[in-house]
Design goal:
By secondary structure, this protein is of the alpha+beta class. It has a single domain, classed as Ribosomal Protein L22, Chain A (Alpha-Beta Complex), CATH 3.90.470.20. The chain is 39% helix and 28% strand. A hairpin with a 5-residue loop joins strand 2 and strand 3.
Length: 142
């Protein structure tokens, strides 16, 4: 496994809450996908979930070595929650081009939050070389 890049971010939840209050729907649609907006709004502490996704996207930008200044949109990244709570980074648009160009096969992300802060860590992992055997799948969760 070759690491292409890593990234981390921390953000104050009230800061994201303030941006949502001031800019409303315009801010939400500029930063988050429709699916992310629905997910966060369905949660009890929505602001913390929005802040965690902000931090995750910032961490992914760092891991990929790119960001909005290079033409990658915030909504080119989507953080999805799997059935067992595992996180998956989906890429689209310009982010997909960056992933291909840099040889990234997978982006791992971890998020955490409390009332005050949200933090995230991301790791971009290289695509395996052609002909390289795939690692065995992880054992099933108990």
């Amino acid at each position: 496994m070759e690491i292409v890049g890593i990234g981390t971010d921390i953000v104050e939840c009230p800061r994201i809450g303030g941006m949502i209050q001031r800019h409303g729907e315009l801010f939400l649609r500029r930063i988050y996908t429709e699916r992310e907006i629905r997910h966060c709004q369905s949660r009890r502490h929505a602001i913390e979930h929005f802040a965690a996704r902000w931090a995750a996207k910032e961490a992914v930008f760092q891991a990929l070595g790119t960001g909005p200044a290079e033409g990658v949109s915030w909504t080119d990244l989507e953080i999805r929650v799997g059935p067992r709570g595992t996180l998956k980074v989906m890429v689209a648009g310009a982010a997909k081009q960056v992933v291909r160009k840099r040889g990234v096969g997978q982006v791992l992300v971890s998020m955490a939050h409390c009332r005050t802060y949200a933090t995230a860590y991301a790791m971009a992992i290289a695509r395996p070389a052609p002909g390289t055997p795939s690692p065995p799948p992880p054992p099933p969760e108990a």
